[in-house]
Amino acid sequence: MSVIECRELSKAYLRKKVLNQISFTIEENKITGVIGRNGVGKTTLLKIMAGFTKETSGEIRVLEQRPFNNLYTSVNSIFVDDQMSFPPALQLQELLEAAQTFYPNWDMDFAQRLFKYFNFDPKHYHNTLSKGRTSTFNAIVGIAARCPITIFDEPTTGMDEAVRKDFYRALLKDYIDHPRTILISSHHLEEMEDLLEDVLLLKNGKVHLHIPISDLKEWAIGLQGQASSVLPWTEGKEVLYQNQIGLNATYVVIKNDLSEAELAQARLNGVKITPVHASDLCIYLTSDTKGGIDDVFINR
Ligand SMILES: Nc1ncnc2c1ncn2[C@@H]1O[C@H](COP(=O)(O)OP(=O)(O)OP(=O)(O)O)[C@@H](O)[C@H]1O
Fold it and tell me: Which GO terms of the molecular function aspect are on file (predicted)?
């Protein structure tokens, strides 16, 4: 069953179109990574889903209702980012108690265990926490709320690596016991790969790809070797990335649509064939150049 449906959804700020007639559906109880370069519109899309931001045109349905300013959406969803605001007069422990009264599925025992594990002081105030600690506290609220639609926008901002790993693991373990629909935007795709089921990749205001992460991992291949051996295999193909290695060698990333026989032949011709990491592929797919930062240094 699909729980989020977008049809021809657009969002413009003044005259600047950020989302341009995008259409997709999110199935119930899946974890989807919303990926894209800075400024592509991830936060905008997630805030439209959470009912915080109004779409400019097109249609969006979350749990079959239009989310904007919708009480049903707010009760059934949570939007977690580093800007989450809490009543400043309440201490952290009081915030957890307040959350319990608002979120019907709130698990106080679980929230307290996480709170203790991450060494929070119940008497501290939210607005005095450091950036990483703010994200960690917000993440505890986001997980323990167990909302049917759980949205994390860059949830790990400021967290150190150990805390980021703990967060992803806690989320995965809790999701296995209590499946729900989760959307996460993050710039750390490599850290989330084991968590995600689907990836929604945004580029230039459009959905560029919306596929299972397992497919994304096999979507492209890297060809490496002498340019004279590699380049014939790229003819007629869309080159996603190309980089020169040393004087004559080259590394090229293309869509993985070579047959087994072609791959075997390429190997015989001295081409090394490698998988392309999902996070690298997302960078190549959303880049405006084929050589990345190296292009800046060409023909100087
Ligand atoms: N309230 C606003 N008013 C005007 N422009 C806005 C507003 N919010 C976002 N934008 C613009 O919309 C575009 C998309 O912003 P958004 O924050 O959705 O991108 P993002 O993909 O989440 O970026 P990042 O990865 O850097 O967080 C940007 O160009 C941003 O400047």
Answer: ATP binding; ATP hydrolysis activity
Residues 206 and 231 both lie in one domain? no
- Which residues does 164 contact at the CB level (< 8 Å), separation at least 6? 156, 188, 191
CATH number at residue 50: 3.40.50.300
Question: Containing domain of residue 234, as a range?
Answer: 218-297
Choose the residue to mutate in 9, 13, 286 for probing ligand 1, maximizing ligand atoms within 8 Å of C-beta: 13
Q: Tell me the residue type at 149.
A: I
pLDDT in tens, 215-242: 999 999 999 999 999 999 998 888 999 9
Q: Are residues 261 and 169 in the same domain?
A: no
For residue 138, report the distance from its CA to the centre of ligand 1, in Å. Answer: 21
Task: Note whether 160 and 198 are same-domain residues.
Answer: yes
User: CA–CA separation, 90 vs 71, rounded Å?
Assistant: 24
Residue 199 sits in the same domain as residue 122? yes
Amino acid making up residue 270: G
Q: Is the ipTM of this complex over 0.85?
A: yes
Length of the chain: 300
Q: Ligand 1 within 6 A of 40 CB?
A: yes
